[in-house]
């Protein structure tokens, strides 16, 4: 009798435990479901903020959707300070001496002439006047980010610090660079013609880019930066295409700023070029070479920072109120490449910088910046004085400067990352 009673108690206890276990699973499932639906709602709200109603939509051959948005409905005007902003449709001043450096001399070898470049979506249409092209953000784009809040933002500590590098900082941040730079003066802009490639990326959370940096303030939490160039970033765009991009921050990448038009800030006025859209074609090793020209300068009258792509496209401007130090001038300009190395324990990624080849290989094989200029306080484009160079690990990625009549100040840069001398 006692044993039977004991058995019934055990069965009852077992049934109770199973019931509680199932209840726990149901609770966990409900919590997960609630969390997933909350995240979905968050993502949807963010997409509604970013993707404004389109006048026209163009499907790019690479799968991108380019929305033609009325110029006054772009994301910039979500900013409270820009509610009553009157769009400036052209800069008051343009740096002098812009076009002289790009004239190809009669003595330049034909093989070293660059070829025209465009964006892939142009093959399928163009945006009407009065609109601007914006790459539509998809749900999967936002879900690849660490959080909805961090979508479209760089990770912290993404700026090379040539004069005061802390080795621990390099290892911790995982960012590596091969750059040329100037400092020690007041700068009001910068220009360069940048060779375009499609570097191979090892991990989806890594990227490779080539850009110019306009910097103000210290390398602490108050750093101001305006950046423009090309990048390959599977994490941001979901593919390995080479894309035109811009970036800005006024607090060292903490809370302010973003890539392209993924937050309010940059005001675009151009209907032909889409930030974040694929560039085509790109350079090939020992074959045709393609490059893009980028100019960023400060309008002396309004104080806004303007950006120009090539000789024909003034894209728009960053209003001066976005910045503290850059509201006056820049204290440093940098040009060059950057990659992220996510490999742990001292191992190195095989993510390429530039063409993936070292500078000494030269034209047609290595990546370059040519006709490097800075804008001075008289709004003149000038050759930089005392161009310095910097790289964290020259066995992985390197940089070599030079100067001649056709290319002015230039440098070759980049590398393969992991190799026998960069384990």
Automatic annotation (TrEMBL):
This protein's UniProt keywords: Signal
Keyword Signal assigned: yes
Annotated ranges, domain Neprosin PEP catalytic: 169-423
S-adenosyl-L-methionine in keyword set: no
Bilayer-spanning residue ranges: none
Signal peptide: 1-31
InterPro entries (alphabetical): Glutamic_endopeptidase, Neprosin, Neprosin_propep
Name assigned to this protein: Uncharacterized protein LOC111301793
Organism name: Durio zibethinus (Durian)
Gene that this sequence comes from: LOC111301793
């Amino acid at each position: 009798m006692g044993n039977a009673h004991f058995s019934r108690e055990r069965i009852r206890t077992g049934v109770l435990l199973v019931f509680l276990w199932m209840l726990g699973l149901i609770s966990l499932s409900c919590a997960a479901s609630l969390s997933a639906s909350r995240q979905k709602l968050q993502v949807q709200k963010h997409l509604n903020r970013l993707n404004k109603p389109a006048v026209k939509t163009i499907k790019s051959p690479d799968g991108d959707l380019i929305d033609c948005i009325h110029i006054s409905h772009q994301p910039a005007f979500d900013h409270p300070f820009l509610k009553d902003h009157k769009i400036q449709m052209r800069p008051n001043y343009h740096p002098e001496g812009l076009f002289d450096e790009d004239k190809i001399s009669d003595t330049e070898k034909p093989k070293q002439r660059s070829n025209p470049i465009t964006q892939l979506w142009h093959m399928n249409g163009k945006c009407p006047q009065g609109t601007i092209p914006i790459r539509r953000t998809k749900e999967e784009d936002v879900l690849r980010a660490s959080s909805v809040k961090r979508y479209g933002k760089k990770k912290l500590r993404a700026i090379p610090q040539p004069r005061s590098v802390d080795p621990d900082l390099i290892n911790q941040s995982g960012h590596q660079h091969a750059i040329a730079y100037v400092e020690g003066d007041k700068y009001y802009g910068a220009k360069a013609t940048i060779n375009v490639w499609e570097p191979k990326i090892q991990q989806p959370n890594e990227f490779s880019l080539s850009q110019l940096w306009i910097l103000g303030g210290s390398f602490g939490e108050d750093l101001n930066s305006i950046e423009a160039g090309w990048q390959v970033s599977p994490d941001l765009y979901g593919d390995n295409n080479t894309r035109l991009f811009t970036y800005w921050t006024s607090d060292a990448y903490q809370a302010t700023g973003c890539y392209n038009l993924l937050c309010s800030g940059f005001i675009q006025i151009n209907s032909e070029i889409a930030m974040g859209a694929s560039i085509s074609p790109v350079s090939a090793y020992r074959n045709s070479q393609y490059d893009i020209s980028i100019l960023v300068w400060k309008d002396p009258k309004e104080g806004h920072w303007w950006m120009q792509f090539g000789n024909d496209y003034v894209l728009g401007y960053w209003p001066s109120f976005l910045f503290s130090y850059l509201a006056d001038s820049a204290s440093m300009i940098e040009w060059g490449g950057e990659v992220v190395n996510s490999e742990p324990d001292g191992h190195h990624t095989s993510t390429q910088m530039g063409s993936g080849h070292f500078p000494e290989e030269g034209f047609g094989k290595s990546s370059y910046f040519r006709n490097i200029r800075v804008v001075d306080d008289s709004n003149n484009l000038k050759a930089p004085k005392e161009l310095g160079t910097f790289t964290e690990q020259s066995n992985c990625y390197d940089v070599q400067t030079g100067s001649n009549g056709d290319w002015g100040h230039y440098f070759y840069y980049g590398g393969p990352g992991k190799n026998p001398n960069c384990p």
